[in-house]
Amino acid sequence: MNNVDQADPREIQTLQMYLNEYGQQIEILTQQLSMIEQQRLEAAAAVETLRALQENGDATLLLPIGGGAHLRVKVLDAGHAIVNIGADVSVERASAEAVEYLEDRITELEALGKKVAGSVEQLQGQATEISRRLEAAYRGARQAQAGQSGSS
Predict the structure, then answer these.
(1) Is residue 97 included in any domain, yes or no?
(2) What CA–CA distances, in Å, run from 91 to 47, 97, 122, 123?
(3) Residue 15, class by beta-carbon neighbours within 10 Å (0-12 exposed, 13-18 middle, 19+ buried)?
(4) What CATH number corresponds to the domain at position 30?
(5) Residue 128 falls within a domain, yes or no?
(6) pTM, rounded to two decimals
(7) Domain that holds residue 69
(8) For residues 101 and 84, is the Cβ–Cβ distance under 8 A?
(9) pLDDT of 66-112, one tens digit each?
(10) Which NCBIfam families match (predicted)?
């Protein structure tokens, strides 16, 4: 008996493998999206702090030292900041230049975040389609089993 609707076990296994891979890719991209957002928030906080220091040069800040502890510190040079420009390289820049650099970085992070979110959305769509195909294959396999059980 040759049933056209009967699902090929290899196809079911392949679809399940693809679905698992898409799930893993979505999880990785979601983690990347979270890290991008964290970096964006940190850069935005740095911009806000630098702007506040430019307005009020003689300021006292809370400096986090870890473990939830902070120190009150006086800013010695509110006109300059040391900025990480990548690859563990930091340079001293005037505060206004540092703000501009950080704002550009925020823009880059937002664009990257949109790109990664688009990839997540695309993968979710593909995973949904594979889920539909997998469900149809399972239904076909159940119907084939029911048909064989009924004809025996």
Answers:
(1) yes
(2) 16, 11, 39, 39
(3) buried
(4) 1.10.287.370
(5) yes
(6) 0.77
(7) 9-144
(8) no
(9) 999 999 999 888 889 999 998 999 999 999 999 999 999 999 999 99
(10) prefoldin subunit alpha
